[in-house]
Write a structure and sequence with these properties.
The protein has 195 residues and is α/β, with parallel strands linked by helices. It has a single domain, classed as P-loop containing nucleotide triphosphate hydrolases (Rossmann fold, 3-Layer(aba) Sandwich), CATH 3.40.50.300. It has a five-stranded parallel β-sheet with strand order 2-3-1-4-5, with helices on both faces. Keywords: Kinase, Transferase.
């Protein structure tokens, strides 16, 4: 079956966002990443800046902050409202058109569809550090810290809202090591698997 929707989850520094963008170009389909922030903000009633910081990442305070974050009488926190708005936007996009969606638990949100290819991109530490130092113009020590913080927050968000483990192969159709395969080969594999 042709896969109309490609979701790409990724480790920070693995190039998953870049790979996803190139796959979308090669297939001639829409690409969604940060460009859905305004839609999520509109649906949730929160600022785009807040969504940018919180829609894919857990609070910096960790899992307990998630579980006990200021819940109102409906038992919903602001994070829950953001997740629900994000979920609605992703479901709407999947109904509307073929596309590549980066992160945002899209693999889980769309898990009941047959036309979705779920990909996880990871990489080796030296290559990820090198990429982060180059892209963000930071020292190696700062790159390691950024990587650990971002991946921990992605993992916490994913694990909390999906009841699955972030990065676990069972959750994805494909798991690709961009350090071993290179970006071009990752792109080719994803394109081939979607046809």
């Amino acid at each position: 079956m042709v896969k109309r929707i490609i979701t790409i989850s990724r480790e920070f520094g693995s190039g998953g966002r870049f790979i996803g963008e190139e796959v979308a170009k090669k297939l001639g389909i829409a690409y969604y990443d940060k460009n859905i922030i305004n839609e999520i903000a509109e649906k949730s009633g929160l600022s785009p800046e807040y969504i940018q910081e919180n829609a894919e990442l857990s609070p910096k305070r960790g899992l307990f902050a998630y579980a006990f974050a200021g819940r109102d009488i409906t038992e919903k926190s602001v994070e829950d409202m953001v997740y629900e708005a994000q979920r609605k936007v992703i479901l709407d996009l999947a109904e509307k058109e073929s596309c590549v969606i980066i992160g945002r638990n899209a693999d889980y949100i769309l898990k009941d569809r047959d036309d979705v290819l779920n990909v996880f991109i990871h990489g080796n530490m030296p290559e990820k550090i090198q990429r982060i130092t180059r892209l963000y113009n930071v020292e190696e020590k700062e790159a390691v810290k950024m990587m650990a913080d971002t991946d921990k927050r992605r993992m916490t968000n994913y694990n909390f809202y999906t009841d699955q483990r972030w990065g676990k192969a069972d959750n994805y159709t494909l798991c690709l090591n961009s350090s071993q395969l290179g970006y071009d080969r990752c792109e080719k594999i994803i394109v081939e698997c979607s046809l």
